[in-house]
Design brief:
heterodimer; A: 393 residues; alpha/beta; Peroxisomal Thiolase, Chain A, domain 1; nine-stranded mixed β-sheet; two-stranded antiparallel sheet; 13 helices; B: 137 residues; mainly beta; three-stranded antiparallel β-sheet; globular
Chain lengths: 393, 137
């Protein structure tokens, strides 16, 4: 059997933020929103569920969560029903895996869902649980905790090497917070001025409060199907998964002997492969959702995804080249800086925004978007995940 | 002994490189080198990640490293709340290794320059705990 083309036909998410709801409650809300997006889909058609969550075993105290979610949303998968963990890229991993299964004929209609419930079991434990995502044995014993210190070092390295400024970092936050201001699902729905960003309380200098993504509860879900099935289910323009890649370089340890902190060689590796597989180049991308866990991340991503030259990311964002009217609008739904970052859900939220953009129904619509890209960075820059979507297969 | 008293908070349960702590108590910060392929490792590895050989040897990290980047931690993770603020630094060493450690409290932030020489040294912490840190020169 020849490989089948794979499409997204539906997407949804719950309201993200600090939620008084369980991870299963939120997965149900996201699934409902997703089902509402594709009314022709019958729940019995769904033969696969991939649930992306890194912390549900620890903070929601639920391992093997996929069958629990399946039961709660009333589906009975027969091809695949499993949980995946790639930390910040879990949702994207789920979409890559579902694409492969559908392409190969091993599944037909797969829901990729994901999310996190992080402020539990006790609120203080959040900051202990986060140690599981770094090299807790060695770096952790030194007091290396949540990601901000790592990205602070990265920002300082980029600033020293390329002259990147605090104003340029802040420009990313101003754009993404503005884009999120009209997103009803975002954790933060309030624009900020450049003065507010620059003068905000320092978290880890040079990163301030508005340079960092918050801790977020939330879920998201998409439905992936074969092209033939998609044509049965929707009259909307079809959105295809064209190419994917996921590249890891090193462990989660700060002691890895790699390139310089602001030189993300594994992002370039992943980008090269994803663009080749999608048969497009960076100039072809009409809209992108890249992993703005910190403002410095989006700047380096512009460079290593190939949207601008190495070292010019600061000037690229300051001149609005990553905004509407620029070279490529980035994080059009507000990104992680507005929406928040429930790890397993983020790649799915990005896919949802690209899906809406390519169908011409996004809240902040990019003009004539035909090629879209999503990107995730996992953990302390341990791997990069890229998916490229298109209106053509 | 093992890693029970390592760092302000120890997250290490059981590891094959427990001799690291014995050497640290004796005043030495050790790394490992693979006798087969020459790969050097810090944190130490009992088995080589490159060629997977178990024929590895210990060596002391005695050289001067160069500061690559640093950060001031104002909000410590669980267990470190009372330590903050402190400075985490990353340094590259000639032996082909890179080490993350705290800067000694003797070094003030105004005196830090990227590329400055640092050596890594054992440090005794309160309540019988032990770690390593960077000192000048």
């Amino acid at each position: 059997m020849a490989d089948r083309n794979v499409c997204i036909v539906g997407a949804g998410m719950d309201r993200w933020g600090v939620r008084e709801a369980s991870i299963i409650d939120m997965a149900q809300e996201a699934a409902k929103d997703c089902f509402d997006d594709v009314p022709a889909l019958k729940k019995d058609d769904i033969d696969g569920l991939i649930f992306a969550s890194s912390y549900c075993g620890r903070s929601a105290f639920q391992v093997n969560a996929a069958p629990v979610v399946a039961e709660r949303i009333g589906i009975k998968p027969t091809s695949i029903c499993t949980r995946v963990d790639t930390l910040c890229a879990g949702g994207s991993s789920g979409i890559i895996m579902a694409t492969g299964l559908i392409k190969a004929g091993m599944a037909d209609v797969v829901m990729v869902s994901g999310g996190e419930k992080l402020y539990t079991p006790q609120r203080w434990e959040t900051y202990y649980s986060e140690m599981a995502s770094i090299d807790h044995d060695w770096d952790g014993a030194q007091g290396m905790g949540l990601p901000p210190p790592f990205f602070s070092m990265t920002a300082q390295d980029h600033m020293k090497r390329y002259g990147t400024t605090k104003e340029q970092l802040s420009a990313v936050s101003v754009k993404n917070r503005r884009n999120g201001a009209n997103n009803p699902k975002a954790q933060f729905q309030k624009a900020v001025t450049i003065e507010e960003v620059i003068n905000a309380r320092a978290v880890v200098p040079p990163l301030g409060l508005f340079d960092c993504t918050p801790i977020t509860d939330g879920c998201a879900a998409v439905i992936l199907v074969s092209e033939d099935k998609a044509k049965e289910l929707t009259d909307r323009p079809l959105v295809y998964i064209r190419g994917t890649a996921q590249a890891s370089l090193h462990s989660m340890s700060m002691n890895w002997l790699g390139e310089d902190l602001s030189d993300w060689v594994h992002l370039r590796t992943a980008a090269k492969k994803a663009f080749e597989r999608a048969r497009v180049s960076p100039e072809d991308v009409d809209v992108a959702q890249t992993h703005d866990c910190f403002t410095i991340s989006e700047i380096i991503e512009m460079e290593d995804l190939g949207f601008c030259r190495k070292g010019e990311g600061g000037a690229f964002v300051e001149s609005g080249q990553n905004d509407f009217g620029g070279k490529v609008p980035v994080n059009t739904d507000g990104g992680l800086l507005s929406c928040g970052h429930p790890f397993g859900a983020t790649g799915i939220r990005q896919a949802m925004e690209i899906f809406f953009q390519l169908q011409g129904r996004a809240i902040n619509q990019a003009k004539d978007a035909k090629i879209g890209l999503t990107h995730n960075l996992s953990g302390l820059n341990v791997e990069h995940t890229i998916l490229i979507y298109g209106r053509e297969p | 002994m093992g890693f029970e008293n390592f760092g302000t908070v120890s997250f290490t349960a059981e590891a094959k490189v427990a001799d690291f702590i014995t050497q640290l108590e004796a005043g030495k910060v050790m790394a490992t080198r693979c006798r087969k392929c020459g790969g050097s490792y810090f944190p130490p590895k009992a088995d080589c990640p490159k060629c997977l050989s178990s024929d590895v040897e210990w060596f002391e990290v005695k050289s001067q490293g160069k500061l690559a980047s640093y950060t001031v931690v104002n909000y410590g993770p669980s267990g470190f709340e009372n330590d903050a603020p402190y400075i985490l630094a990353l340094a590259k060493f000639d032996e082909g290794i890179q080490i993350l450690a705290r800067l000694s409290r003797d070094i003030e932030e105004k005196d830090i320059t990227i590329g400055m020489n640092l050596t890594v040294s054992p440090v005794k912490l309160p309540e019988g705990r032990i770690a390593y840190e960077f000192i000048k020169g």
